[in-house]
Amino acid sequence: MTKRPDQPAATARLDASVQGLIGTALDRIDGPAKVTGTARYAFEHQGDAPPLYGHIVGATIGCGRVEQVDAAAARAAPGVALVIADDPRLVSDSASGSEDALPAYTREIGYFGQPVALVLADTPEAARAAAALIRIDYTIADGRFDPPALHDAADPDPPRPLIPNRSIGDVDAAMAGAAFTVDAVYTTPHHMPAAMEPHATTAWWEGDRLTVHTSAQGLSGTQRMIAGSMGVPREQVRILSPFVGGGFGGKTGVVVEAVLAAMAARETGRRVKIALLRRQVAHLVHRRSETHQHVRLAADAEGRLTAIAQESIVSQKPGRGFIEPVAFGSLSLYAAPARRFTQALVHVDLPAASAVRAPGEAVGSFGLEIAIDELAEKLGIDPIELRRRNEPENDPMSGKPFSSRQLLACYEEGARRFGWERRSPVPAIRRDGRWWIGHGMAAAFRGNFTVESRARVTLAPDGRATVETDMTDIGTGTYTILAQVAGEMLGLPARDVAVVLGDSALPVSAGSGGSFGAGSSGSAVALACQTIVERLAERMGVEPDAMTLKDGHAIAGNRRVPLADLLGGEALSVEGHATPGAHTRSVAQASYGAHFCEVAVDAVTGEVRVRRMLGVFDCGRVLNLKTTRSQMIGGMIWGIGYALGEEGVIDARTGQFVNPDFGEYHIPVHADVPHLDVHFVGEADGWANEVGAKAAGELGIAGAGAAVANAIYNACGVRVRDMPITLDKLIAGLPEA
Amino acid sequence: MHFTINGQSFDVEPDIRTSLLDLLREHVGLTGTKKGCDHGQCGACTVLVNGRRINSCLTLAVMHQDDEVTTIEGLGTPDDLHPLQAAFVRHDGFQCGYCTPGQICSAVGMLDEAAKGWPSHVSESLDDGALTDEEIRERMSGNLCRCSAYPNIVDAIREVADGARDERRVGEEAAA
Ligand code: FES
Ligand code: FES
């Protein structure tokens, strides 16, 4: 793309790609460790002496007060080392924001499963058996467990939202004067992050120094909150998280087991291991709030939008700050003079709500993108054409230019690859035996952020490089892409770059979350390398631009010098520091995409099968074709799950999830997922960050489920606005077979 | 008690409540086998017992005296990958890696079941042996992947299954 004067310079070497490493489909460098079971996750940390196993005992009520706890039998049980019950050394909840410590223990119960006791024993079996002997007496109070029942009392302007309520122009007037309108309510249920690795921690003390091997997306916040909870300076706390068995937002904060393990290790002088049971994960880790979205669209006779409104109600536990930013992906997607995006909040006595993969977009895209599909049908124009007609020139919220926006190209390329022109504009036309066949599409949008991040790159005397940062790889491919960035910048093959992650003793990174990890940590690595390049150029006696680095050699003029010779027996070590930078404020930055889906709906039972799906994406520079594609298919499959299966169901009498495990919280399985096609159309975006990569990890999910929902409507003519689209919601409306 | 795991002998006296999974992870230090749910719902704990795939969280260790247990560590090492392990790396059949040992052990067992002609829910007939993608998906559906690497896992298994079939055919031709 065109270079602008205020663009970061470090991208030049990546653009040139002399080493040919950046962007390639390099196999994951941590792959062999993962496929052989040698990668060690948090609960697998080995020590010299046998550990103690902890078991957390949670409240079996959702609201009320602990009156009395009898732990005598548990204390006397075989194998038990220590029982800490109804005790201020415990904590009452996890934390996922900017807290300095986890909330203190309290007898007031605000959610089902809230910790009341911790049992430590020589074996997990002994700990669990003893835990069953603890008797807790409660006074039960009426809890607020059913968010929709509380909507009348919602706070219309809750404090500290992620995106403030915004209103531009007069939506009501536009609706009144419009040729075509959509005015409907869409809902999404509670969602769980449900990483495959349950939250787990191994903790031990050496003198006054604490080491916590845990499963975390970001290490510096984890260090701060554990140190705060333990009442020690953070320099005394070391966090290790080299392998993380999935995050999806659920590991952005600190969950109770980490602090309880650290506390128990201090109390006992032993190494302590605690893992949440799968059913505890649902309650002690946060959920994504259910959403109630009132969407209004107004359009003139040509299909130009005159108003967009998405007014939502979400829920949160008192005292917690996160408000699901439903309209995040809707804000800048379409042009329209009148715009209104608001969020109201109800307080509930349920597990806290917080960030789950693509906060906002993952659920908000159902409301907006189904509504757009409904509007297209009313107007009698193709859904892609409707979107084209409403493609904004500049960011419709701020008026700023877009840094890069290949959304129209995503539509075009997607339509071509998918065969969109063969879709029937009229629903319930196409049959394949007992199946109704339909096609749908939706746009994908994910805001791009760069977050402060540091990394150290060391060029050893032998010319090999090591990248070190406290960044994590939660399956996103960080190990591999950082090796590619460093290898490309320094002219080294991937095998000559080692990457060390997941240790809080290393330079502080952005962490994994919000799709900012690759761009931010990659930029820190690129900046460190850039300084190394300048120093090498000095030794070559040339300007950096006049020097090429390739295959471990510096090349300038007719000289080709091995890096080891330039280094002269000394290592070069530089820390790179990436910051959002002034240029990022002058443009609107986001990643874009378009999803296309074909479904089959059983004409008798209403069973839905996704037959094929395509995603075309603009996420700036693709750092690794293989791992980025994997991120996209992962997100698309989450979209399938959100459209068809995932639904956290709360028992409105007790406030507990009735389906807190994989048996009943239905995430997609192999048989639900066809072959998926992914294609990229983006180019390096120099405004985004030094590596030119825009948000990727959450882009794939945004809009994916809406494409499935729109395909279902196109197949059978039943419009379902309450997710997930289970067959009971289709069956009554199915056309006569 | 005596256990044979990856061809090695272990003498352990486990608690009668200890699952085979916890025996592997907590007693003999083989942490490659993962615990995702402890309820038989996710397949992360899949190992091979006497060659057949099994959810090791759903079976007690004391039931496996003298059984031959094979875990992910018994299939290959980082420097000497099993063909399925190599195919998973090539096709990016994983992201976080936590379900991966279970997927791979399950695939080993599954390919053997298919080779023996065992039908699945989606088999057209009892003697239709073709291992289509649909068959692979059906037969692997007990192994969940929240990172959702499913299409890549199918590609990895497909490659090995086709390779294995080709080898068999070569073998058959040679024998004929
Ligand atoms: S841990 Fe055994 S099936 Fe999930
Ligand atoms: S690779 Fe993460 S759960 Fe499968």
Automatic annotation (TrEMBL), chain A:
Which residues are in the Aldehyde oxidase/xanthine dehydrogenase a/b hammerhead domain?
36-142
Q: Which GO terms describe its molecular function?
A: iron ion binding; oxidoreductase activity
Tell me yes or no: is Cytoplasm among this UniProt entry's keywords. no
Annotated keywords: Molybdenum, Oxidoreductase
Record InterPro entries: Ald_Oxase/Xan_DH_a/b, Ald_Oxase/Xan_DH_a/b_sf, Ald_Oxase/xanthine_DH-like, AldOxase/xan_DH_MoCoBD1, AldOxase/xan_DH_MoCoBD2, AldOxase/xan_DH_Mopterin-bd_sf
**What Pfam family does this protein match (any one)?**
MoCoBD_1
Name the SMART domains on file. Ald_Xan_dh_C
PANTHER family given for it?
ALDEHYDE OXIDASE 1-RELATED, XANTHINE DEHYDROGENASE
Q: What is this protein called?
A: Xanthine dehydrogenase family protein molybdopterin-binding subunit
- From which source organism is this entry? Sphingomonas baiyangensis
TrEMBL record, chain B:
> Per its UniProt record, what CDD domains does this chain match?
fer2
Q: Which residues form the 2Fe-2S ferredoxin-type domain?
A: 1-75
InterPro entries per the UniProt record, alphabetical: 2Fe-2S-bd, 2Fe-2S-bd_dom_sf, 2Fe-2S_ferredoxin-like_sf, 2Fe-2S_ferredoxin-type, 2Fe2S_fd_BS, Aldehyde_Oxdr_Iron-Sulfur, Beta-grasp_dom_sf
Entries under Pfam families matching the protein: Fer2, Fer2_2
**One Gene Ontology term of the molecular function aspect:** oxidoreductase activity, acting on the aldehyde or oxo group of donors
Domain of life of the native organism: Bacteria
Has UniProt tagged this entry with the keyword Oxidoreductase?
Answer: yes
What are the UniProt keywords, alphabetically? 2Fe-2S, Iron, Iron-sulfur, Metal-binding, Oxidoreductase
Q: Which PANTHER family match?
A: OXIDOREDUCTASE, IRON-SULPHUR BINDING SUBUNIT-RELATED-RELATED
Tell me the protein's name: 2Fe-2S iron-sulfur cluster binding domain-containing protein
Originating species? Sphingomonas baiyangensis
